[in-house]
Amino acid sequence: MRLHLLAIGQRMPGWVAAGFDEYAGRMPRELPLVMRALPGPARSRAIDTATLRRLEGQALLAAIPEPALVVALDERGRTVDTRGLADRFAGWQQSGRDVALIIGGAAGLDDAVRERADWLWSLSPLTFPHMLVRVLVAEQIYRAWSLLNNHPYHRA
After folding, report:
1. Domain 3-148 bears CATH identifier 3.40.1280.10
2. What is the residue extent of each domain of the chain?
3. How far apart are CA 156 and CA 147, in angstroms?
4. Cystine design at 5: which of 19, 35, 118, 136 (Cβ 3.0–4.6 Å)?
5. What is the pLDDT of residue 156?
6. Do residues 22 and 7 touch, judged by C-beta distance below 8 A?
7. Which residues contact 122 (CB under 8 A, 6 or more apart)?
8. 94-127, pLDDT tens digit by residue?
């Protein structure tokens, strides 16, 4: 199984790349977490938010490896605690399918991406910068793996 983090936006600050790489690098070889940063459409004053979301959504949907299970990060999704995420992670592993974790751009996710998702995951009722979400998701995936494998990283 491979974990694909698909995100809009290619210009990451160094701390985002370092944070993501730290947790992705801790994953075992048989469960790689790889990021694919997709370019957003060219910004202009002529493009409205709905069109921007639609274009970003099309790029995200096209990047999903088939037949991956799709998890979209969305404020309207369900929150889970660490044990709940670990349980989902275990189910993903048992399915044998790759998992695509989808992070939209600053305008949010298009409805087409939400409809394609097998699960809508909300990290928190708070709003986070989408760049920070890359690091948070990588850390939480590593934490879920560590909990399932009795690794000392998760001590709760």
Report:
1. yes
2. 3-148
3. 9
4. 35
5. 60
6. no
7. 73, 74, 75, 76, 77, 78, 79
8. 999 999 999 998 888 999 999 999 999 999 999 8
pTM of the model: 0.93
Q: In what order do the strands lie in the sheet containing 33-38?
A: 33-38, 3-8, 99-103, 69-78, 119-121
Name beta bridge partners: 73: 121
Cα 84 vs. chain centroid, distance in angstroms?
16
Query: Among all chains, which residue has been given the structure tokens 């995420």?
Result: 85
Pick from 74, 82, 71, 86: nearest CA to 125: 74
Q: Two tokens at 2?
A: 């491979």
Question: Which contiguous run of DSSP H or E holds residue 54?
Answer: helix 49-63
| CA separation for the pair 39, 56 (Å, rounded) | 8
